[in-house]
Amino acid sequence: MSAPAPLTAPGTPTGTPTGALPVAPGRRSAAVLWRTARAHPGELAAALTTTVLSSAGTVALPLLLGRAVDVVRAGDGLTPLLVQLSVVAVLTALTTALARRDAERLGASVAADLRERVVDRSLRMDPRVLERAGSGDVASRVTEDVELFTSSVQLAANVLTSVVTVALSAVGFLSLDWRLALAFCAVFPVHVASLRWYLPKAGPLYATERAVAAQRSQVFLQSLHGASTVHAYRMAPLQGERVRAASRRTVGASRAALRVFARFSMSMNAAEAVGLSALLATGFWLVRADAVTVGAVTAAALLFHRLFGPLGVLLLSFDEVSRAAAALNRLVGVVDLPEDPAPDPAVLARAPRSRVGVRVRGLTHRYSDDPTAAPVLRGIDLDVPAGTSLAVVGESGAGKTTLAAIVGGVFPPTGGTVELVGEPDGEPVALADLDAGSVRERVGVIAQESHVFTGTLRDDLTLARPGATDEDVHAALRVVGGDDWVSALPDGLGTRVGPGELALSPARAQQLALARLVLRDPPVVVLDEATAEAGSAGARDLELSAAALVRGRTALVVAHRLSQAAACDRIAVVAGGRIAELGTHAELLRSGGRYARLWDTWSRPAQAPQAAADT
Ligand SMILES: Nc1ncnc2c1ncn2[C@@H]1O[C@H](COP(=O)(O)OP(=O)(O)OP(=O)(O)O)[C@@H](O)[C@H]1O
């Protein structure tokens, strides 16, 4: 088998690909696990109590059997001992069943809590962190890692019982004879040696296994999302090879982990042979020296035998525990992502809610962390007074989408400020000083791709304003001209949409996005290419829908169709990351610059569609 390809750039920690989400250290994960368990005090107390009782029973039975041997050898009556044995056996069986149930119940609650926190934190993740990590990394944590951790609940129950049983067995050996206890301890050097060999290898191997699995998910997701591009450019063989290479790396990582585990399992048998031999030899010697009874040695041998199971569970489950720990570390890494600091209440109180203008000063942005890289935006200053609209036009790659995303508060710029200005005499408040929720209340954004969530049209639309009535929803749809086709559907707002349900054209999906913004009713809207997706027939309708949304609001509109730009109060032409021209449609035509040339090309009837695509 060929060695797995290296996963990381030189110098990056093992199993943490560059840009991947953080992985929490084991100690931090253990603390989070314990705190989560303590949040369920009733279940935690029940699991611990039944586990201790069942382990006590497991240890008591061999001790009673040993005593039975001595009673028989002495020729005394067995009846009281048999009664005791029966009672302990029944209670042990009962508490063992209860212990398993209680531990699983606690484990399920802990896993559910953790899953909710991971999903919640993932949904509130900074888009830049998500972009750097890749949606595959997030997806594999929220699905595979949560699954792996949840399926370890049964294992956790067994491990808990085994730990307590081993501890109580040590007490049992000591109650028989300290030398028998010492002989039993002969197993430990062998176990410790094999664990010291195994553990340092297992942790990184399983972390690597989880990380390559995440990379494989990433490649799969990219292939699925870009399926049409893959098809159009006949990239299927290349993409197929990428998927195969990712799968080969995953198989390689799993095999490496399995080989190490197989050698570790063999060492366990050796430890048991050593332990039992030491115990029996010591027992013979002690009986011959009249130091202990035959019954005591029998009890010790039975106790040791009963320990095979719990010790085996503990040692063999190091394998699964290592996997579950690797998954847990990745989950806690997501949970621990730093939260946005809460905004200053005084700033929040000042943030305007109506008649809001937008002021942009010295806006600079570069996508690369390298400060010497060329910026995409270079010192943009703009004012959009309350209730007016500004169209942004320019060639492809000029920086329009970047400007719109920053003004919409999707991500912060590397330099400069975007402020909301309450008119007529409110103080400006920077978007950077507000939390995401407060920004969204004031600034609504529509990006080029409008997502339709699985569910009914009603669910999809009321996401923007939970509690909105059907009448509110129909009214919002009427504003953007979408009520006719929705009302014509047999189930109206109850129609199910999304993958596998009623398929919506991109134009209709964008109309829904526009209606959602009408429902939310923010004073500022940023529309990035809201009409670009539709074909020329649908584009005109969407243009009208967008114009209806913009009316009365402060708007920044990235316009690919110049008719949409002409309908705005002012137009900014972006070129090379700067504002090249700014004015009304009439002013810019009169000045005969870039905009006038674009308009000239665009408005020639025969070339209109091509020109639209080129702006
Ligand atoms: N996430 C990103 N990471 C790195 N570079 C980016 C990213 N997004 C955009 N760019 C680059 O920034 C520049 C400006 O892109 P932007 O999308 O803002 O331009 P645009 O004017 O909206 O173009 P278009 O009309 O084609 O959408 C381009 O060179 C683009 O390649």
TrEMBL record:
PANTHER family: ATP-BINDING CASSETTE SUB-FAMILY B MEMBER 10, MITOCHONDRIAL, ATP-DEPENDENT PERMEASE MDL1, MITOCHONDRIAL
InterPro entries tied to this protein: AAA+_ATPase (IPR003593), ABC1_TM_dom (IPR011527), ABC1_TM_sf (IPR036640), ABC_transporter-like_ATP-bd (IPR003439), P-loop_NTPase (IPR027417), Type_1_exporter (IPR039421)
Molecular functions per Gene Ontology: ABC-type oligopeptide transporter activity; ATP binding; ATP hydrolysis activity
Family annotation (SUPFAM superfamilies): ABC transporter transmembrane region, P-loop containing nucleoside triphosphate hydrolases
Occurrences of domain ABC transmembrane type-1 (ranges): 45-323
Identification of the protein by name: ATP-binding cassette subfamily C protein
Location of the protein in the cell: Cell membrane
Signal peptide: none
Region (Disordered): 1-22
Keyword field contains Phosphoprotein: no
Keywords of the record: ATP-binding, Cell inner membrane, Cell membrane, Membrane, Nucleotide-binding, Transmembrane, Transmembrane helix, Transport
Membrane topology: Multi-pass membrane protein
Span of domain ABC transporter: 358-601
Pfam families: ABC_membrane (PF00664), ABC_tran (PF00005)
Superkingdom per UniProt: Bacteria
Chief place where the protein resides: membrane
GO CC aspect terms: plasma membrane
